[in-house]
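Researcher: Good morning. I'm working through a list of sequences from a screen, and I'd like to move beyond sequence-only analysis. For each chain I'm collecting a predicted structure so we can compare shapes side by side. This is the next one on the list. No need for commentary yet; just the structure.
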Amino acid sequence: IKALAFDVFGTVVDWRTSITTALTTALILKLTSPSLPPSVRTTLTTLTTLSIPALAQQWRSSYGRFTRTYLPGTTPWKDIDTHHRDSLTELLASHGLEGVFSHSEIETLSKQWHFLTPWEDSAPGIKRLNARYVTATLSNGNLSLLRDLNETGDLGFRELISAEEFKAYKPNAKVYLGACEKLGLEPGEVAMVAAHLGDLEAARGYGMRTVYVERRGEEEWKVEEER
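Model: Good morning. Structure tokens for this chain:
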């Protein structure tokens, strides 16, 4: 193995805590608005006291559905920043909160995915691995998002590789094989590092090596797979 290609959301950064905190802050701040209709205030109050972690998970799950169903060459291209903005608008509307946030507020809130907190072992671990391997992102996140995560989290990745460059999303072969080609290596010389078995199974199917990293709450086990 000459290079390590890292999944980012969940594997390197703790999206769940970061996004739950961002949603909580934004929704509680909105509750202070005197012009908020009583019915919306009631809905918002219930959401902020009971369901923000679930709201964060729904937002994340919409990302998974989007990337899995994207068909290169058929589905019009949409980057992850645009998806996060559009899916947040749809998600708020489904909870009776349509129009609570302005367009610019939605834009700002959706960009919180650029500033997720790394797991505490991520930055020091990646920097140590740099002494022996080429470390790279291999994420569905767009390049500007990955650049911000790398810089603000001081992660130390030597290469930033995004699905955006191949106009496809994992688990499409173009992403895994395109990353290997960009690194100038054969698939067997690159290990995919992820906290999601589906990501690793796809990478292995294209000849890459794999490394599993267990992260709290990240694996979507089926009932029959639980131990």
